[in-house]
Amino acid sequence: MDRLSSSPRLMIVSDLDHTMVDHHDPENLSILRFNALWEAKYRQDSLLVFSTGRSPTLYKQLRREKPMLTPDITIMSVGTEITYGNDMVQDEGWIEFLNQKWDKQIVSEETSKFSELTMQSETEQRRHKASFYVKKENAQEVMKTLSERLAKRGLDIKIIYSGGMDLDILPKGAGKGQALAYLHKKLKEKGKLPKNTLACGDSGNDAELFTIPDVHGVIVKNAQEELLQWHAENAKNNPKIIHANERCAAGIIEAIGHFKLGPNISSRDVTDLSDAKLDHFDPAYEVVKFFLFYERWRRAEVENHEVYLSNLKSVCSPSGVFVHPLGVHQSLHVCIDKLKDCCGDKKEEQYRVWVDQVFPSQIDSDTWLVKFQKWEQTGQEQQGCLTTVVVSSKGVKPTEGLTWLHVHQTWMEGTTKNSRNDWFF
Predict the structure, then answer these.
(1) For labeling, which of 6, 108, 127, 317 is most exposed (least CB within 10 Å)?
(2) Could you read off the pLDDT of 93-135 as tens digits, one per residue?
(3) What pairs with residue 47 in β-bridges?
C-alpha cells in the first residue's frame, strides 16, 4: 500500500478459484485477458487484492500452476490472514484483533464431537481457522448446534459454509468482508481510501464482500448456488451488485465496464495491435503490447509476417542491446531477425506469455525505465525473468510508439532456467 502516494484509482478485491482463475479454461484466456488489462491500465495507480479461502501453502501452489499476477495485498484462509507485497508480510494488527474471544483448542474439542465433520488437510488448519468437509444435507444442523456449543464455552465465532461441502470456523471478526473493511479503515487513516472498490466472487464465503459499504460487487456467471441464493435474498435490487454474463475474470472485466470504473478493453481483445494508436506515451502499454505480439508470433497467430517484423524493428534502436538472462549481449535488431526462425514454433503447444508488476519511472524528459516480470508458460512449466527496459520518446510521436533502447533480463529465483535457444526476449 505504501507505494502509492495518494488514493488508489481502483481497488479490485477478488476471490481466486472459479472467480479470477477459471479451472475449466485450459488456455487460461480469461485471466490472461485480465492480466493484460491490469498491467497496461491499472497497475501504476491502483491496488490488486486477492481474497481466497486457500491457505498460504495452497495459494503458492496455485501461483505455480496458473498465470497469476502478483497482488499488492493477499487475504488468505477465508479472511483470517492479511499479508502485503511480494514478501507477504503479515499484518500484526489483524492478528491481534482476531485473538479476541478465540481459542483454537476449544474449537478442536467441540468439533471432535461431530461425526459429520471430516477435517481438511493440515495445511488448511490455520491459527484463526478450523476447516472441515460436511455433506450438504447435514450442514445446517451441524452449524446450528456447533455455534450454540462454542458460544456456551465463551467463544465469539462465525461459521461459513461454501462450495456445497466446505465448513470453516473463524473468529467472529474474521472473514473476507471484515478483512476488506479493515483494509478500508487502514487506508482511510492514511488518507488513501480507494476512489472505487470492486469485490468479485463466486461462492458463499464471498458473500460478506458485497456487504461492505460503498463497494461495487460482481458475482461471476458461474457462481455457486449458495451465493446466488444470497444475492436473491439480500441484493437482487441493489444496483451496485451485478450477476455477470461472463465467467470468472471475464466477468470482472465486464463489471469494470458496467460500473464505468475505468478502461475495460484488454489488449488481448485487440486483433491488430499495430492499429492501436495512442495520443500519449504509455510505457506500460508498450511493454504489454510487445510481449503479446511475441506470444502471437510464436503461436503463428500473426499475419503479414514481413510487415510485422519491419514494424517491430522500427521501434528498436539500431544501437539497442538485449542482455539475455544467461548474460549474453546481443543487438536488438539481431534478436528481431532471429524471430524469423521461431515463427509458429509453439503453434501446437499451450504456450502463453504475460508480464507482471509493470512499473515505469521517467528518468528524464524523454526516457523511461520500466521494470517488470516476464513469464512464459508451456503446458504446466513456467519460466520467468526480472526485466528492465529503457524506452525513449525522442524523435517519435505517440502514434509511432516508444523506441526500445535496452532490454536486460535475469532469471527469477526458483524458476526453471532455460538454457536452450528458445528464450528470445
Answers:
(1) 6
(2) 999 999 998 999 999 999 999 999 999 999 899 999 999 999 9
(3) 11
